Amino acid sequence: MAIHTLLANAGPQSLKQATQTRPRWKPFIRKPRKFRWNINEERLHKNHLCKLCGTNYPLSIAFIVVNEFCERFSYYGMRAVLTLYFVNYLHWDRDLSTAIYHAFTSLCYFTPVLGALIADSWLGKFKTIIYLSIVYVIGHVVKSVGAIPTVGDTSMHIALSMVGLILIAFGTGGIKPCVAAFGGDQFEPEQVVETRKFFSIFYMAINAGSVLSMIVTPILRGDVKCFGDDCYALAFGVPAVLMVAALVVFISGSGMYKKVPPEGNILMDVCKCIGFAIKNRFRSSKHDVKRKHWLDWAEEKYSKRLIQEIKMVLRVLTLYLPLPMFWALFDQQGSRWTLQATRMNMAMVRVYLSAIRMLNALLILIFVPIFDFIIYPLVGLCRVNITDQKMKKPPNLCYSFISTLPENTSVYLTDVPINVQANYIMSPIQNLTRNRYPSVKCEAPTGVFSNLDLGLLDFGASYTFILKKVCDVMANNVNIAWQIPQYVLITVGEVMFSVTGLEFSYSQAPANMKSVLQAGWLLTVAFGNVIVLIVAEGGGLEQWAEFVLFACLLVAVCIIFSIMAYFYTYVDPSQLDKLYQQDAAKGESEDELKMTEKMTKL
């Protein structure tokens, strides 16, 4: 308007000047900005380019792997003595102890969802790991204080123990999906082989921490005495120190990490997008244009990129539906397999008992390199594309005495006499270590009787002694070494299933949902434990029938999963990023061109 008024009212000279005068406004055309380093960006870039020992791995992953080793030592070390702490220190019965133990384990695998939401939507993976690790450390400290006999009474010990376990569950569960995804973020998109190898090394660090913790913490509990009894405070305190070390190591590598910032409340956007698509789908009429996918009904409000990312995540989560059954069978190592071991003969493997307890973790350390460097390459030559629990120490044998004499009797199986009342009253049932007892001293007020030859008292049996040995429950002659093939086979399955599952969850997730999908993978473990609880509590089956049931269910799940995996198409999230970046740049260039043409016409 200003230019037209000037042309109408001005003379020839003014007209010439006005036509040569530039307009007071011009279209905004974004000019390419020169990339400039500041000091901190240059330092971080150089640190990230540092490689580990001449390899193609970034140096930052060394801090992440050491952090995971210390954290897993902390977690498994605490859990190794947790049930014994419930039974022997808090004096709970076996049923209550088992229920609390499984409830704690389930909570540890449900809380990863919360950690993933915080990481991807708010704080980012780095800060989430640090803050929840602090919660983790506080939980360990509270749990250790609750194991000190001089701190309050039994109610105080129970309260501190429960608070500590809840904090530990939120800490370990919250950082669980973030650490693996954060390690994957350190690699460039083209480092596919290095990323896959990292997840194998990461899983080995988990099991190395598990093996070492199952050696150290039971020794600290049983061999070290404090306050006149087993030292649970020390057994819980050492894992707390290891968690502090994990936090310090992780913070030490801060300057070398590649930190992907969070992208807002992505889960809320996902839920709203799904809800909007469902609502539009049901409100549509027959005359509306058909859509290829039900999520496409959200295109009116949400971007195509978000819709495509949600499709990717839902396809992977659908693939996860049958997977809890594997964990339902795998996690029985700490329950059903342990109970099976208590009924077996350990005469020939008593020296190797500690090794059997951590057999799964040891085999993981052996099998992961074998599969990575031998099995998978050989399978690859055939053109096939392949992209812990612990055994608790079984109770010793049980025994009791019945005296047919009219007077009380004292029997010396150990230095402490067993008082056996007269007139066929059974003495309290007690535990005893496996051994031969050829000469047991027996005394009465009227004199000393001849020594009793009780012979070999074996594992897993219950004995009642009258005048001669009577074995009420025969000791099982099946040696516990027969459990070794079970552990070998389940560990081979774990290597092929769990390691590749971690890498698959990371590689198939969009950049802003990697922690969420890692949490979805961990949820399969939680639901697997729920399946075990349902079958164990509500099935009412004999033990052999329960084993057969789980085996048949897993075979059926394998068939279903194989069919689902056959129809699954691998995606490359980095290609999705490039596609939408090119589309956005193309759209932006077209808008600028149209604006320029419009201003030229004016």
Number of strands: 12
By secondary-structure content and strand pairing, the structural class works out as: alpha+beta
Largest sheet: 4 strands, mixed
Strand order of the largest sheet: 6-3-11-12
Coarse morphology = elongated
* Rg computed from alpha carbons, rounded to a whole number of angstroms: 33 Å
Note the gap between the termini.
11 Å
Mean pLDDT figure = 76
Helical stretch tally: 21
Name the beta content range.
5-15%
Helix content: 55-70%
Low-confidence stretches: 1-46, 348-355, 387-395, 467-472, 586-593, 598-602
Helix and strand arrangement:
Elements: H1 2-9, H2 12-20, H3 39-49, H4 60-80, H5 82-89, H6 94-110, H7 112-123, H8 125-146, H9 154-185, H10 192-222, E1 225-226, E2 229-230, H11 232-252, H12 266-283, H13 304-320, H14 324-330, H15 336-342, H16 353-357, H17 359-381, E3 397-401, E4 409-412, E5 418-420, E6 430-432, E7 435-437, E8 440-444, E9 447-452, E10 455-457, E11 462-465, E12 469-473, H18 484-507, H19 514-538, H20 543-566, H21 573-601
Parallel strand pairs: 3-11
Antiparallel strand pairs: 1-2, 3-6, 4-5, 4-8, 7-10, 8-9, 11-12
